[in-house]
């Protein structure tokens, strides 16, 4: 798959397992095959060590799992793979992270790192501070890709469909990025009424 699609990155977050969801929906689990992706990009709120281990299993090692702290995760300094242990025994994550995919610098933040939450102006300030081309954001904004002020913003939504304070009914979703040099194809997967809906967006770096 990687040979045909370039560098593949699974983008997801806001699992909230087991506090708000029992697990990833079976239609999504069947799609998340170990060894097919080179990176996992996670916006936090994983919920438990077992789910973080699942992410590691998809790509084979912790260094390919790029995860930041959501508002309900433990904060850490940078350890091996960007993760250290917390006092409670679970994984803890940095506030932000930057990686390179193809020719793109990609930043990752939890949705609570920009106030007001989901505000593109606030997110643009974070993107400029991190000096990235693409900002992956957790939180409650509608999943998908938005272009704003010369940058791209990717919102994977919640892979479990975990509820939030402002939205008690959330469709589970995640994103797959296929990166080839200066081009990104973004596939948004959303579970609607038990069926997986897929939409595609493309963008490139000039």
What is the share of helical residues? 10-25%
The helix/strand order is HEHEHEEEEEEHEEEEEE
Strand order of the largest sheet: 3-2-1-12-13-14
Shape: globular
Main sheet record: 6 strands, mixed
As residue ranges, the low-confidence spans are 76-89
Task: Explain what this protein looks like in three dimensions.
The chain has four helices and 14 strands. It is an alpha/beta fold. The strands form three sheets. Strands 3-2-1-12-13-14 form a six-stranded mixed β-sheet. Strands 7-8-9-11-10 form a five-stranded mixed β-sheet, with helices on one face. Strands 4-6-5 form a three-stranded mixed β-sheet, with no helix packed on it. Residues 76-89 have low confidence and may be disordered.
Short description:
The protein is α/β, with parallel strands linked by helices. The protein is 15% helix and 36% strand. It is globular, with a radius of gyration of 16 Å.
């Amino acid at each position: 798959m990687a040979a045909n699609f370039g560098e593949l990155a699974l983008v997801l977050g806001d699992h909230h397992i087991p506090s708000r969801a029992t697990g990833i929906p079976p239609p999504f689990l069947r799609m998340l095959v170990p060894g097919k992706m080179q990176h996992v990009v996670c916006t936090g709120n994983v919920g438990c060590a077992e789910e973080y281990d699942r992410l590691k299993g998809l790509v084979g090692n912790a260094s390919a799992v790029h995860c930041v702290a959501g508002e309900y995760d433990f904060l850490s300094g940078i350890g091996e793979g960007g993760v250290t242990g917390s006092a409670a025994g679970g994984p803890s994550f940095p506030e932000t992270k930057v990686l390179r995919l193809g020719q793109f610098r990609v930043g990752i933040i939890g949705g609570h790192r920009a106030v007001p939450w989901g505000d593109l102006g606030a997110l643009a300030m974070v993107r400029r501070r991190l000096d990235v081309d693409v900002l992956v954001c957790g939180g409650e904004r509608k999943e998908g890709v938005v272009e704003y002020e010369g940058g791209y913003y990717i919102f994977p939504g919640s892979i479990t469909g975990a509820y939030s304070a402002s939205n008690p009914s959330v469709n589970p979703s995640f994103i797959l990025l296929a990166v080839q040099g200066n081009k990104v194809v973004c596939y948004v997967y959303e579970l609607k009424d038990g069926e997986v809906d897929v939409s595609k967006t493309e963008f490139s770096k000039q």
